[in-house]
Amino acid sequence: MNRRSFLQWANLAGLVAGLPSARAFAVTPHEAEVGQSADASTAKKAASPETLLLKDYRPQSIYKIPITEVAKAKFPVIDMHSHPYAKTAAEIDEWVRNMDEVGIEKTMILTMSTGTAFDDIQRKYSKHPERFEMWCGFDLAGFDMPGFGPAAVKELERCKQAGARGVGEIHDKGKGLVSGKAKAPGMHPDDPRMNAVWDKCGELGMPISLHVADPIWMYQKMDRHNDGLMNAYEWRLDNQPNIVGLSGMVDILERTVARHPNTTFIACHFANLDYDLARLGEVLERNPNLYADISARYAETAPIPRFASAFYEKHANRLVYGTDMGFDKSMYRVTFRILESLDEHFYEIDQFSYHWSLNGFGLSDAILKQVYHDNAAKLLAARA
Ligand SMILES: [Zn+2]
Predict the structure, then answer these.
(1) Hey, how many other C-beta atoms are within 10 angstroms of the C-beta on 24?
(2) How many structural domains are present in the chain?
(3) Cα-to-centroid distance, 183 and ligand 1 (Å)
(4) The model's pTM
């Protein structure tokens, strides 16, 4: 499944994906109607830079330079950020075969769900207990009623009994907490109402995968200066009134993490500080109970390979591998190529939807081992 078909699937499935979809690129009904003459007309349009549209732009690298095929990760991998993409037993078996082929030892399934929805997913994946872990969501019902907390804690304990090993993915893109279909508008992670819930996660030995904010381009004006325009427009936040901005959400994340030192948090997608890794480094340094996953931010970091690899080197003990993009073998391989190779100027527009080219980080074996596996293994083993 490439990014586009995955996102179409994710939209249909009502899943919240970590990253922007490529719907902005989809063929419009008008284009479809044009039918056979479409190719000719596209070619004619494309002949002029005056009429070529950014959404149609598919540059191809001309450089005669090495292309590294990474069929299998160099070391065994723990994927800390995935979702229940596979729906049937056959699809789950296919996923396991893909994991074997590309070198994924274990995958965290962030179900975002509670109650019978969680139990159903848990049951479906129970044939492969060594390969998948189920993480549950929060029951946010009654968040705006007095006495919120005990019921959420009770359901958390029940999910743990039913097999949940962690919590996630919990979102807050500035409007309040979201756990799958459960929403708590206006209640952010640092809200005192959440204190008992976060503490209970620590007590139960359940790490939390917490997604705050979204990439910076989504907050910026949708104009000719927006560097990530094609994705940004699809997932825009610039038109959302009264939301907490990116920087404010990072402050909220840090306040929450600092207030609950016995609870382990994993900030999804570099805490959306992929554009300001130095700030993420400071937040990590101040908070030993915080990790960051690198899922669904490969295309956002691959344009700055030297700065990004220096960041990996400095914070190698706090970064964990994740995908968040379906379970195609080709998807995994793109992530390995970016982390392992020193390839330059390659395009994966269908996977990531950005128009720019990517570069590999060429991470050392020691760093790859930590990020692919050892940090996650340590974090998971520390649970009660
Ligand atoms: Zn996700």
Answers:
(1) 16
(2) 1
(3) 16
(4) 0.89
